[in-house]
Write a structure and sequence with these properties.
It is built from 5 helices and no strands. The chain is mainly α. The model has no long low-confidence stretch (mean pLDDT 82).
């Protein structure tokens, strides 16, 4: 939500080129962070499971696998969050609602 004042300022000026450039750099940053956290969670999945306190050997392997599967969704979720905020800023409430529903209801179910 920290991008709201910046994008609103650009919108007030009618500077669509700056909005596109800012959203592109925000998209690339969130995509990069999503990828970095995905890789970190895949590499350190065993450690994360031990920190969570799962000690049984058969359950531990399943939980490690689940952490690795969940980490793949970080990229998708970060991009969805950016688009949700963008559509909220440009006052397309229905699209923002659909993205929020997808991010918070559908993605956790999958």
């Amino acid at each position: 939500m920290a991008i709201v004042p910046i994008v609103d300022t650009f919108r007030g000026e009618g500077n669509t080129k700056a909005i596109r450039m800012f959203m592109h750099s925000s998209f690339m940053t969130l995509f990069l962070f999503g990828c970095v956290f995905c890789v970190l969670f895949c590499i350190f999945a065993q450690f994360i499971v031990r920190v969570l306190g799962v000690n049984l050997s058969d359950t531990e392997n399943l939980v490690v696998f689940a952490v690795r599967i969940t980490s793949v969704s970080f990229v998708f979720r970060s991009v969805l969050t950016l688009f949700f905020i963008y559509y909220l800023i440009i006052e397309k409430r229905l699209l923002a609602f659909l993205l929020c529903a997808m991010k918070d209801l559908i993605c956790p179910i999958l």
